[in-house]
TrEMBL record:
<feature type="binding site">
    <location>
        <position position="68"/>
    </location>
    <ligand>
        <name>[4Fe-4S] cluster 2</name>
    </ligand>
</feature>
<feature type="binding site">
    <location>
        <position position="261"/>
    </location>
    <ligand>
        <name>[Ni-4Fe-4S] cluster</name>
    </ligand>
</feature>
<feature type="binding site">
    <location>
        <position position="54"/>
    </location>
    <ligand>
        <name>[4Fe-4S] cluster 2</name>
    </ligand>
</feature>
<feature type="binding site">
    <location>
        <position position="334"/>
    </location>
    <ligand>
        <name>[Ni-4Fe-4S] cluster</name>
    </ligand>
</feature>
<keyword id="KW-0479">Metal-binding</keyword>
<feature type="binding site">
    <location>
        <position position="49"/>
    </location>
    <ligand>
        <name>[4Fe-4S] cluster 2</name>
    </ligand>
</feature>
<keyword id="KW-0408">Iron</keyword>
<dbReference type="GO" id="GO:0004601">
    <property type="term" value="F:peroxidase activity"/>
</dbReference>
<dbReference type="GO" id="GO:0043885">
    <property type="term" value="F:anaerobic carbon-monoxide dehydrogenase activity"/>
</dbReference>
<dbReference type="InterPro" id="IPR004137">
    <property type="entry name" value="HCP/CODH"/>
</dbReference>
<dbReference type="GO" id="GO:0016151">
    <property type="term" value="F:nickel cation binding"/>
</dbReference>
<feature type="binding site">
    <location>
        <position position="46"/>
    </location>
    <ligand>
        <name>[4Fe-4S] cluster 2</name>
    </ligand>
</feature>
<keyword id="KW-0533">Nickel</keyword>
<dbReference type="InterPro" id="IPR011254">
    <property type="entry name" value="Prismane-like_sf"/>
</dbReference>
<dbReference type="Pfam" id="PF03063">
    <property type="entry name" value="Prismane"/>
</dbReference>
<dbReference type="GO" id="GO:0042542">
    <property type="term" value="P:response to hydrogen peroxide"/>
</dbReference>
<feature type="binding site">
    <location>
        <position position="37"/>
    </location>
    <ligand>
        <name>[4Fe-4S] cluster 1</name>
    </ligand>
</feature>
Amino acid sequence: MTMNHSIDPAVAALLPLAKKEGIATVWDRYKAMQPQCGFGQLGVCCRICWKGPCRIDPFGDGPQRGICGADADTIVARNVIRMIASGAASHSEHGRHVALALLGVAEGKLPDYRIRDEEKLRAVAAKLGLETDGKEIPAIAREVALATLGDFQNQDHDTPCTWLASTLTEKRLERLAGLHALPHNIDAVVTQILARTHVGCDADPANLILGGVKGALADYDGMCLATELSDVLFGTPRPAVTAANLGVLKEDAVNIAVHGHNPLLSEVVCDLALLMDDEARRAGAAGGINIVGICCTGNEVMVRHGIPLATNYLSQEMALVTGAVDAMVVDVQCIMPSVSEIGACFHTEIITTMDDNRIPGATHVRFRETTAAENAREIVSLAIAAFRRRNPQRVVIPDFRQTAVVGFGTEAIVGALAALNADDPLKPLIDSIANGSIRGIALFAGCNNTRTTQDSSFVTMAKKLARNNVLLLATGCGAGSFAKHGLMTQEATEEHAGDSLKGVLTAVGTAAGLGGPLPLVLHMGSCVDNSRAVEVAVAVANRLGVDLDQLPLVASAPEAMSEKAVAIGTWSVALGIPTHLGTMPQVTGSPAVTELLTETAKDLLGGYFMVELDPDKAADRLLAVIDERRQGLGI
Ligand code: XCC
């Protein structure tokens, strides 16, 4: 394996240090894992019952059926939709947590939280079809929370989830209803996937995949409500200038890395850090407390409050290798269990906070919304105490940080466009697409994966697409990649955008008071914030009177890794969006499932998966798809 681990210069700077200290990283473990199981890679290994494990011989000489009789198509389909169920469960559990918090705030039970964006609350209520006239904020919040929780409780199969039904185009809803793919209840749909994939149940690959599509749409519903209600509680993203990469750690400050996904924890830690800054200074930290983000928690606080991003998924361990992180505070999802072992090599407190997400060796502070400030105070105190134990001789902060202009949620994008046309903000965007100044739109999402060189495909594809005048949106660890590599700057627009795209970004950015163009890639937020991109697309589609599968819009997850990414990719396809994967999905052991996802989906849904591991070729394929869509629209 001669592949480079990462194009991130901070990673390159720290890997030799990790080696010298005898610290194993994700890349060492990846190497030790080679060769990886070929059956697993093809998706043909079944571990669903204890007669197994069974695996299908991909070459046809050995068994073609598992002990129960399931063939490769059944096994692959079951495996992939179980991944979707887990992804949907993860996003939606996060969403439920936020919805319950909103209810608690509305009922005056959570003194450490408040509604920070009343305008957004009213907008959300209107979107859900709730009457708000003459009602006080707590009453509206309560109704919104209850309507949202209905998406976890509704037992009427013919009534689709509220958020889904109020955020997609009519045509899309009809199409999905025709396929019986509209979820009525997030929890029920996740449960149904687990039930139908139990030994001896659904064996029809097409039927299973359709069940997976429904699960993926439940995932969309869960992330949509998580995003929108988080805005209500914590503020809607606004453009802000901040920075990314490990150079945002400070030698003279108590460095607290917030890592995971759910803003309910990180927001209160940020609040408490402000209040406890003096305490940190008294402990000898002249720079006070420095909060930095990792993964999607990092993206959440970055787009809302301009908190710098330390790094994205694959290099989370590197943050610890700097010896400068005093506490890594984690909640849920994408936290490598290895962090506690690496933290123990230093003075770093690894603090878990959620009772159902613990890591051996970490300190557990039981986080409750009812006692949030008290819990956050304990967390920050642990960080300050750890700072006192920090060994300055072991601190190596690589001097890499890039400016990042972030915070482009739907409201911010529409707000910027309104500077050009206050009466009809979407018009400048639509005109630019119609006249070809913007050739198309690409949403970059998804993770990092050891199977590719970290960040490399993101950067290669984005530069090529931008040169070809494609407007770029990003979320999750994809957004982290762009932020770390300086592509969320005005300079990047000057350097990499094609002439007509540059013209549009400059006109909008200048009118919006940015004193120059919008950044080359617009940071929309965390993974749950992919729903923001859908919101923009739906607004454009409605305005044009077309459906989503007619727009020159594509999505790409060049380094997809997690079950959540499988769920997101699948709803992206279900919404009609051609969706590129830059890592090989574990489905190719079934020609039937592969065909369903890459070909049949096109007829049924308008969207489909495209797999291309070479980023340069992937960009070409996306451009071709964009042009095909433009032709279809006659533009
Ligand atoms: Fe996790 Fe969201 Fe993937 Fe990053 S992008 S590795 S899921 S943190 Ni969501």
